[in-house]
């Protein structure tokens, strides 16, 4: 400390003792304050905002203009930008943090980079995105989950009737039918033997048998008719239940006949006869028809419990095995060449049942093609949107980024110029040949519309949802 300062302090201490004591207490605090201010002036304040920017190009190094770039971070509003004609994009004034960047462009696979950190460095490194060309796709080839697809196919099979009257449920005309679960096999069984037609025919058969006095042990009159009717109907029930449901469920084989419908007459005939000896397993492979054989034997043995005793036990094997093979071969030939022509409600190969549904509630991100300024908002013309990223079903792309959507949108500045009010009407996305209707919220009537402005533009980014399940048509 300079000598002049010491002298002044000493004089002050002698002449003003209380002032000197106060000054002695405040001196350390003042010195610390001056030191902190000096350090703050020398050290720059940490940066709280920055710019995330980069370029988009393909594998050959060619720039990709028009790519849609999405910036996401937990707890922060999603931002979207479009790469300019030379493939550059940027997000200015981004708060410091960790981000996820997604880039989508028509004809390319989506490019995703996680954990992009924006810190306190002023000059953030440029992000160089190299997009890979997406595999060519000429058609939608996506299936529903097997159980759901099988449920749809069963609904169609339960409508099949010969001449519109006689049930013909245990045949499928689908080229690649889904395997049935045990529950679905029983469902076909219940539908068959609870159908009124088999019940009626059991009664008609009982009447003819009583008139001919077949099985005299049953007697005549109402009691005899009831016994014959019960036996006939029981034969139908255990024939379906044991021969087409229980054994097939135990051995995981399909009880249906798989209609061929193509090829020469001879190849179709050999196929029909051959399927009397083999059955398709639930795993999709052909196997020996042991479920049919064992089911036929069990059904025959069960019928001996309520049928009068037979004097030909030695022929049981012939009846249940050899005649079983012959019966199935004959039935398959009739199915292949005759019943297919007279069965109603048959879904032929190549129809849409095996194609997927685009489910209600699937999110779809769209970008308005034009700036939605005051003039556009006043126009009554439909507004065009473009799909921001590939739309997928089951991991397969069904609509490429860049697909078009149209709809009526009211885009109005909020009261006092604050915020935006967006109203939608009849927005539809074109997916192949299908117009997919879209709605504002994922749950119908619940929630609010999600939208924001495109970076540095009056164009709007909007998230809509598929309004109802839509069956997709494969591209030609």
Number of helices: 10
Q: Tell me about the biggest sheet?
A: 6 strands, antiparallel, barrel
Strand content: 25-35%
Rg for CA atoms: 39 Å
Shape: elongated
| Low-confidence segments | 1-13, 137-143, 349-355
Number of strands: 25
- Can you give the mean pLDDT? 77
Q: What is the helix content?
A: 25-40%
Oligomer: single chain
| Strand order in the sheet with the most strands | 16-17-20-21-22-24
Instruction: Indicate the structural class.
Output: alpha+beta
Task: Describe the secondary structure blueprint for this structure.
Blueprint: H1 3-15, H2 17-42, E1 49-58, E2 68-72, E3 79-82, E4 88-95, E5 97-104, E6 111-118, E7 127-131, H3 146-157, E8 161-162, E9 166-167, E10 171-172, H4 182-193, H5 196-211, H6 221-250, E11 257-258, H7 265-274, E12 278-280, E13 286-288, H8 290-303, H9 316-342, E14 343-344, E15 357-358, E16 363-368, H10 374-378, E17 383-387, E18 391-393, E19 396-399, E20 404-413, E21 420-431, E22 434-439, E23 450-453, E24 460-466, E25 470-471
Parallel strand pairs: 1-7, 10-11
Antiparallel strand pairs: 1-4, 2-3, 2-5, 5-6, 8-9, 8-14, 12-13, 15-25, 16-17, 16-24, 17-20, 18-19, 20-21, 21-22, 22-24, 23-24
Helix pairs in contact: 1-2, 4-6, 5-6, 6-8, 7-9, 8-9
Account of the 3D structure:
The protein has helices spanning 3-15, 17-42, 146-157, 182-193, 196-211, 221-250, 265-274, 290-303, 316-342, 374-378; strands at residues 49-58, 68-72, 79-82, 88-95, 97-104, 111-118, 127-131, 161-162, 166-167, 171-172, 257-258, 278-280, 286-288, 343-344, 357-358, 363-368, 383-387, 391-393, 396-399, 404-413, 420-431, 434-439, 450-453, 460-466, 470-471. It folds into four domains: 3-42, no CATH class; 49-131, Immunoglobulins (Immunoglobulin-like), CATH 2.60.40; 146-353, no CATH class; 356-471, Beta Barrel (Lipocalin), CATH 2.40.128. The protein has ten helices and 25 strands. Helix 1 (3-15) runs antiparallel to helix 2 (17-42) and helix 6 (221-250) runs antiparallel to helix 8 (290-303). The chain is an alpha+beta fold and 476 residues long. The strands form eight sheets. A six-stranded antiparallel β-barrel has the order 16-17-20-21-22-24. It has a four-stranded antiparallel beta sheet with strand order 3-2-5-6, with no helix packed on it. It has a three-stranded mixed beta sheet with strand order 4-1-7, with no helix packed on it. Mean pLDDT is 77; it is low at 1-13, 137-143 and 349-355.
